[in-house]
């Protein structure tokens, strides 16, 4: 019996010690720490690789995470040096984290320390590149083939004419010398008519397309990927384009909005970026361009020189005589950004999705249904509301509330 008691007294204390869980630590780290810290890289706070070795006492590290102000007040040299190194930016207190939670985080950091920070850099997928080339415009090839076939047809016609002449001469039926095709009035008239038709078609198409720039994709001073920001990271469009629901213009975001995130995010670690031409883009170098524009020193963590505006190239342009209001379409019309801008969350480089022509807008107004329910903007249309209640109509389009009248867009 005494042996069992002795064994239990030895085993129970060891079994009570819970092993740290790196998987749980990763989850806690991402929820509480990842906005300011990275294991291998310096962000708003220091890199956390080897953090336990930098503190003299693990209990002091626990106390620092629970409440850094109390450790600073104690006069600890390392804590105060760290505080001064990072421009006296106080670390967020986490009193809700238990010591076990912190140990789980430290276990996760140790696991991450052993992993390489380099990733396998691969070029574009050859199969994808081949498919892209194969899917390119083949109109030039078709034109060349058509020209070759036309030349072959003319040669065959000439051969046929010569054979008929030889056959007639052999049978004693001389035939008059054929008129060369370039002197034949019928051929000349047909050629002139064809030129007028082709020239007229391209002239009309060119005239209709004046001022339109569908698929326009200018090179911007900084490579900004909407796919990374709005798609992968799911940043709301209104965070940058705050005017879309409040004013006529959606607003180009100021550099301060960019720096809200990029004071901490100094290096790009997302999927590889490529221009429309297939040229690889260094995301970290593009972030450095932003720092240069705003005058931010990433090493010192402060602004060291005057900033200058980023000269973005405007993509979507409407004629001066056209009135367009973003807030009217997004608030009253309840339209999503993708209606006019296309799959913006999938674009690395933004291009003009629609031609933004008068016909395109009119067709949209003719087919788009207005959201009458819970929309005070349309409360004045009492007759239409009554018609819906009486089931005379089941929906209302923009055209029915004056969306195709000239003065709606031109006044």
Overall pLDDT score: 83
How many helices? The count is 19
Shape category: elongated
Give the total of beta strands.
4
Topology, pairings included?
Layout: H1 2-16, H2 22-32, H3 51-54, H4 58-66, H5 68-73, H6 77-85, H7 99-113, H8 126-134, H9 139-170, H10 185-208, H11 226-232, H12 237-240, H13 255-262, E1 273-274, E2 280-281, H14 283-294, E3 296-297, E4 302-303, H15 326-332, H16 338-341, H17 358-367, H18 382-389, H19 406-409
Antiparallel strand pairs: 1-2, 3-4
Helix pairs in contact: 2-7, 13-14
TL;DR?
The protein is an all-alpha fold. It has 19 helices and four strands. A hairpin with a 4-residue loop joins strand 3 (296-297) and strand 4 (302-303).
Can you tell me about this structure?
It is a single chain. The protein is an all-alpha fold and 411 residues long. The protein contains 19 helices and 4 strands. Strands 1-2 form a two-stranded antiparallel sheet. The protein has a two-stranded antiparallel ribbon with strand order 3-4. The longest helix is centred in the middle third of the chain and has 32 residues.
Name a few traits of the molecule.
single chain; 411 residues; two-stranded antiparallel ribbon; 19 helices; 48% helix
């Amino acid at each position: 019996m005494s042996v069992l008691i002795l064994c239990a007294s030895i085993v129970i204390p060891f079994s009570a010690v819970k092993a740290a869980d790196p998987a749980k630590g990763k989850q806690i780290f991402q929820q509480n720490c990842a906005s300011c810290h990275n294991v291998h890289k310096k962000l708003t706070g220091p890199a956390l690789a080897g953090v336990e070795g930098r503190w003299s006492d693990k209990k002091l590290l626990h106390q620092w995470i629970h409440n850094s102000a109390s450790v600073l007040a104690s006069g600890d040299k390392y804590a105060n040096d760290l505080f001064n190194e990072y421009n006296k930016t106080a670390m967020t207190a986490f009193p809700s984290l238990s010591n076990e939670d912190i140990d789980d985080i430290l276990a996760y950091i140790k696991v991450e320390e052993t992993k390489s920070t380099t990733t396998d850099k691969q070029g574009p997928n050859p199969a994808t590149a081949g498919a892209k080339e194969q899917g390119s415009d083949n109109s030039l090839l078709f034109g060349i083939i058509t020209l070759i076939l036309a030349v072959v047809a003319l040669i065959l016609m000439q051969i046929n004419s010569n054979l008929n002449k030889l056959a007639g001469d052999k049978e004693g039926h001389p035939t008059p010398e054929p008129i060369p095709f370039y002197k034949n009035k019928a051929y000349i008239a047909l050629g002139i008519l064809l030129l007028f038709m082709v020239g007229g078609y391209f002239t009309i198409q060119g005239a209709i397309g004046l001022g339109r720039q569908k698929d326009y994709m200018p090179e911007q001073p900084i490579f900004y990927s909407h796919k990374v920001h709005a798609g992968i990271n799911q940043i709301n469009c209104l965070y940058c384009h705050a005017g879309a629901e409040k004013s006529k213009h959606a607003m180009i975001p100021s550099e301060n909005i960019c720096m809200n995130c990029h004071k901490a995010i100094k290096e790009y670690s997302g999927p590889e970026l490529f221009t429309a031409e297939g040229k690889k883009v260094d995301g970290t170098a593009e972030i450095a361009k932003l720092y240069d524009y705003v005058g931010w020193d990433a090493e010192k963590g402060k602004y060291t020189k005057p900033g200058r505006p980023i000269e973005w190239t405007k993509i979507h342009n409407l004629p001066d005589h056209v009135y367009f209001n973003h807030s009217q379409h997004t608030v009253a019309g309840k339209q999503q950004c993708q209606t006019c801008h296309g799959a913006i969350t999938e674009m690395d480089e933004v291009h003009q999705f629609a031609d933004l022509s008068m016909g395109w807008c009119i067709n949209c107004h003719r087919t788009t249904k207005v959201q009458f329910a819970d929309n005070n903007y349309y409360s004045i249309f009492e007759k239409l509301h009554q018609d819906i209640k009486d089931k005379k109509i089941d929906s209302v389009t923009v055209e029915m509330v004056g969306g195709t009248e000239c003065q709606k867009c031109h006044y």
